[in-house]
Design goal:
With about 270 residues, the chain is mainly α. The protein has four domains: about 80 residues, MazG-like (Helix Hairpins); about 30 residues, no CATH class; about 90 residues, no CATH class; about 45 residues. The chain is about 65% helix and about 0% strand. About 10% of the residues are buried.
């Protein structure tokens, strides 16, 4: 194996290492992988990068960015072997895209603020992607995105065509009305045990949440992620406090559980 060991490596070394791993005399596992077989790895590594960011851990972020970069190089190597493109083409494409979409930096376009930057970005993107109408911009959002991320993007892009609530207060009121109407229909037995209808109604409610988040400038995916983390932390604290008192959660009365449940969902860590 012709490979030079070093104290410090760079991107050219990573490209060479992956090439060797995929070669005839390389790693038995690496050389049989396909885009499809390692697709989930790419997604997992991306989420682990996000965890490094959420944990505010430079050490974790550095490691996970390396793992994510490996996935990019690996997928590129597969295409290199097919004769479709090489890593340099990937770099060339993104550099050209950045230059083209930042005419206020690399050209003569003048902008006053962040909103104008985003407006220009969208206009250039629509032109280069040959998106002729607003429906095209919605349909271009990948269906593989997590649902809340996709919902956020759909609401933002629809609002550019004038479709959407005008202010957060109106959005919250309509969200509350939607939930209230759904609750009434369940209570009155209108949609009893209709799983398909339940799914549709909850989907409509979640999309209205995304619309409300748009106006509040809240990232829906991030909001639910952090709320889930607070819930888990609060749940653990509650269970530990109850265990310290010689009981288990499933041994408590409905009244006791009701009070604890409210505090857990609100993220409280001290159960009174």
């Amino acid at each position: 194996m012709a490979f030079t060991f070093k104290d410090n490596y760079d991107i050219s070394d990573l490209l060479e290492i992956v090439k060797i791993l995929r070669s005839e005399n390389g790693c038995p596992w690496d050389k049989v992988q396909t885009h499809e077989s390692i697709r989930s790895d790419l997604i997992e590594e991306t989420y682990e990068v996000c965890e490094g960011i959420d944990n505010d851990s430079p050490e974790m972020l550095r490691e996970e960015l390396g793992d994510l970069l490996l996935q990019i190089v690996f997928h590129t190597q597969i295409e290199r072997e097919k004769g479709n493109f090489v890593f340099g083409d990937v770099c060339d494409d993104i550099c050209k895209k950045l230059i083209e979409r930042h005419p206020h930096v690399f050209g003569s376009v003048k902008v006053e603020n962040e909103d104008e930057v985003l407006k220009n970005w969208d206009a250039i993107k629509k032109k280069t992607k040959k998106q002729e109408n607003y429906s095209d911009t919605l349909e271009s959002i990948p269906k593989t995105f997590p649902a809340l991320i996709r919902g956020d993007k759909i609401c933002r892009r629809a609002s550019r065509a004038g479709i959407g609530e005008k202010d957060a207060a109106s959005a919250l009121k309509n969200l509350a009305d939607e939930i209230s109407a759904f609750a009434d229909s369940i209570e009155n037995g209108v949609c009893a045990d209709n799983e398909q209808l339940y799914q549709e109604k909850m989907g409509e409610i979640l999309l209205r949440v995304c619309e409300t988040d748009r106006l509040l400038k809240v990232d829906s995916e991030k909001a639910l992620t952090y709320a889930s983390q607070r819930f888990t932390k609060s749940f653990k604290a509650a269970e530990e406090q109850i265990s310290a008192g010689g009981k288990k959660l499933d041994e408590l009365s409905e009244e006791e559980l009701s009070g604890i449940q409210k505090r857990i969902f609100s993220g409280e860590t001290a159960i009174r």
